[in-house]
Write a structure and sequence with these properties.
Elements (H helix, E strand, L loop, with lengths): L1 H26 L2 H37 L31
């Protein structure tokens, strides 16, 4: 029983090493490198799209918060008056200059 176990374990390790070796050799061929580069390109494209989507969502959120229209102008109210967004306030400490 003990010999059979070690035989199966050794055969499994040999098959595993052979498969890993073939994969490594394939990855270093021209086609393998091309596949890896195309995968990297897809990953970069997906990341860029996610960043652009997040930026657009945040911009929309800020425009809603400050009451700005899509072109950056304040929307017109009845009577021709504009609602101006309050400028951000900054707190200055005395003697910090």
């Amino acid at each position: 029983m003990r010999r059979g176990f070690w035989f199966v374990a050794g055969a499994g390790a040999g098959v595993y090493a052979m498969v890993r070796g073939r994969r490594a050799a394939e990855a270093l061929t021209a086609d393998g490198l091309r596949d890896r580069l195309s995968g990297l390109e897809v990953g970069v494209r997906m990341f860029r799209d996610e960043v652009a989507q997040g930026r657009a969502e945040r911009e929309t959120e800020l425009r809603q918060r400050y009451g700005l229209g899509p072109d950056g102008q304040t929307p017109q109210l009845e009577g021709g008056r504009h609602r101006a967004a309050a400028p951000p306030t900054t707190q200055h400490q005395e003697g910090s200059h």
